[in-house]
Amino acid sequence: MATCACARRCEVSVFGALSTVEGAPSGVLEEVAREFSPRIEVCSPTEIVLDLDGLTRLFGDARTIAEELRRTAADRGLRVRVAIAGTRMAARLLVRYRAGLTIVEPGNEAAAVAPLPITLLDELSSNTSGIKDPHHRIKEPHHRTKDPHHRTKDQEPRTKDQIATFRHWGLRTLGDLAALPADDLAARLGRQQTDWQRLARGEDARPLVPAVPEERFEQSLDLEWPIEELEPLSFVLGRLMDRLEAHLEQRDRGAAVLHVRLHLIKRSNVQGQRSTDGTTREVHERSLQLPVAIRDARTLRMLALLDLESHPPPAAIDRVTVAVDPTPGRIVQFSLLTRPLPSPEQVATLMARLQALMGETRCGSPAMVDSWEPGAFAMKSFMPLDVNARHQRYDTQRYRDTENKSSSSLIHSRGASVPRPSTCARGALSSVEGRCVVEVNDASKLPVVALRRFRHPIPIRVQMKHGQPMSVSIMRRGLNGGVVDSCAGPWRTSGAWWESRTESRFPSPESRVPTPWDRDEWDVALAEGPTYRLFRERHSDKWFLEGVVD
Amino acid sequence: MAHPAVAVLESALRARKLDRTLTTTLPSWEWTDPSSLLPTDIPLVDACLRGGLPRGQLSELTGACSSGRMTLLLQLMAAATRRGEIAALVDTLDCFDVASAAAAGVDLDRLLWIRGADSGLGARGSETQHTRTQNVRSRNMESRIPDRESRIPSSVDRAIDRALKALNLVLQAGGFGIVAIDLADVPAVTLRQIPFTTWPRVQRVIEGSDTACVLVTPEPLARSAGGLTLSLTSRSTWAGMSDRSHVLQGIDLRVRVVSPRKRIDGDVRVRASM
Asked: Which fold does the domain A217-328 belong to in CATH?
């Protein structure tokens, strides 16, 4: 076939279609196409359309380009078909039907595709229905809805029916369909059917929508001399984070996850000497899940450093790579009417510092858990900015109900717990500057007495008299025992008896595994002043100090 | 008229920009902006405090065991979180009861809880019978040792050291309405070993900010010049005459306010219910 003349004229578009028959590894065909043109459209995993405008200056005429495409694909282990034409649709139809290289002169697309079988339209239609969106971030063009090749799945049977109708009419080739009078065709099958004729002539229904390569937000730096300490590493990280911040800002993105990869020099067997070849052997990788989208370079650097302080690399570093998983940027609306809260960057930095100092599980917001277990709680991340739909939670009310619910103090064996009796407090005795005032107010407005709870109950000795504690001995500095002045109880609580008994009597609350408990609780005020909450473990008959009323 | 030596001292402090420690430089309470105070939402206490605890100052809640320190602290935190502010608690020896905070009305989502190591007074549940026996045997020996208190477990020191560092980090981050550090269970002798420069440094950090820093201690320790000391005592109240109906009703809390040069001085009683 003659050399494509239009390739020498800039005003005429030239498209190439690249197709492979055998299953190619994912992305290889796209890599081949991107070596020639940045404007490509991925029609299917085995078919790609390229915009070849301007490539004649680099490679030569259309045939040379096609041969170069084929050679490049062969280098990657692919056998491809190549078709070059003035329209995308003509190139696609030809690449599906003809093997090898196909070059069509501009303006001859209709003639070139005319002998092709009409069933190609059906193939094209069924194939495009499963097309991967070339760029999922780009809004679908409006004109795409007019393209009969972008039909929904419920339209596929209609497409097959229409092709069957064409065949029933005796149409065998695309040329036959293109030769039909457009008005008559629209009168019988509808105005939309004229689009089939345009396709049969090899005309494009819409412009090429180039696929944008997935952008990687990653920065790397090879070091001339390995770094062994974190302080010099902070300068390297700062430099990389600055670049990363600029990239993220350019795309209005923030970091959702920060990845730090440190390539380490593996030490040789002889202590203190590095391997002679100096090649990198190990990778120390850390990933930080950020609470909000962050792109501030200083914050990212600080978070990475604090994490590396807690998890230092075992050897010297010769290559540093930072990468982020991008997420849409954060839109912040400040208010003039409320006190400013710390920014998410400040909170993230503070939490990282605190976790490095106190431990990862020791900082956060407390949360109630749905359990009757005394002292049960959970920790969650501190996110003060999440202010929407914040109401007093049911567990708070449940706790108050539990503590204040009116009930008998008699021990009974059926319930899992005997709630404490109501305090029926309705008055507040107060005095200001010597003047005594008795105020009658709502009990719900009274301050609630707090308990200072010992996370691990303290073993104590209790002397009983007539079934009630008479004296308490505490062998712990700072906590006084003594004669009991007043006491109330016992309130029996038990739970988790259906669980297997663990070896630890008082496991840490973080374990989140319910442990059996069965005990009698007492509130005890000593003559010396302090008021304690005690309990007796029923199965061992041992006494413990659970907390101090404070 | 002030003594000439006092005037010289004050001018020397001003020259070195240390005049924030002078009570004469503090603004008049009559002209205090309400937004610069942290109310407790307990009317009687707020009336006694003339609005609440001052922001940007270091205040104290002091008292013995069961004096109601944690009750009042939780009220402060509940009031702050109800107004949309955020609160932080540095729990030095991990004694915070989450259920009590929830019952007091603290918005837990707005509370940053920093749990110290369960040490010092702790290792509570790990005391074995063997250890207890040893303790009993050595009790008489200990009574003969002149400086018992000097043998402080190093774990408590480490816990305090970490807690103070955490407090500093939180205060430097800023944005908190109230930041409290709970030193109530720390032995007094250990508290006295904390370098005295610690608290002026803390005061420097929060100076001019909207954060009220509160220390919970067994005895007065480190109030700033503009801060307040709330000295607490309490008495438990009981209801019911018979053994079976006897129940702990709450505590009668007596709050005595101590301020620099008695700029505020008052005494108030509040009842807290279970």
From this structure: Dna Ligase; domain 1 (3.30.1490)
